[in-house]
Request: fold
Amino acid sequence: MYTVKVEFKIAIGSEEEQLDLINLLLGSWRMNGQVLGREFPIAQTKGAYTAFVQTPDKDSLGSQFNNKYVRKNLHRLDEKFTAPQVSLLGKDPNSSSLCECISPSSYILYTTYLSTESPLKCGDCFSEIPLSKIPKTFDDEYYNILHWVSDFQNCDHLQMNCTVGERFALNQLSNLSSPLTKEGLSVRDSIQDVTGKKTFYYLYKGSGRNHESEIARKCPSCGGEWFLEERFHGIFDFVCKGCALLSNIAWNCR
Reply:
C-alpha cells in the first residue's frame, strides 16, 4: 500500500462545485479499486486543493486502470482544473506486501475491521492482490466487493467492541445462512466467474464450548471433514476445498 498526493490547481467555478468534482473523482477511483479506504483528507493551499490517498500499488492511478466513471469524472475536472498532479510519497510501512506470484492458483476473500487494504488475497502466498489486477465484477467497477467489505468490517467492529450489537454481528460473521455471508458468497462467486479461479470465503468463529468440540466441527455447507492439522497461512484451521470455505478454531478455545 502506498501513500499518494494528488494536487488540483484551482481554476474556475465555486468552491463547492470544485470540491464536488474532486470528491466524485476520489469516489470513482475508490469504486474502481484504485484508491483504498473511505476517507480522503483534503488540504486547501494557495491556489490548489491537495488530497492524500492510499493506493494498492505504485501505479494504481495510471490511466491504464481507469474505467468509464473515472474517465468521465476526469473529463469534467478538466473543465475546472488542470490535470491532477499525482506524486508518489512512499510505501506505507504498516502495510502488507503485494502478491508477486506469476499466476495464483486461488484467491481468498478476507478482511478485518482494521484493514484498509484490498480484501483479495493470494491463495498461495496470502499477500494482497489489488482489485485492479482482476476483471471488473459489477458494472465496470468493484462495487459489490467494496459493499461487502464495508458490511463485514462494520460487523467486525461491533463484535470487537463487545457492547452494542455483538450477538447480531457474530451471527452475521459466522452463520453460513446470514445475510452478510450470503452477500459474501455472491461476491466470491463473482470473483470466480471473472477470474476462472477458485475463491475461498472466510467464516469467522469467535467462541465455542471447548477445543475438542471445535476441532470436531464439520463443514457447515457439505458436512464434510475440513479440520487441518497444520494451520493454513497461520490463520485458518479449517478448509473445505469443495465448498471453498475457510474458518478458524474459536478464539476462546485455542
Remarks:
- The chain has a mean pLDDT of 92.
- The first strand starts at residue 2 and ends at 9.
- Residues 107-253 form one domain.
- Helices lie at 15-31, 68-78, 143-161, 166-174, 179-195, 211-215.
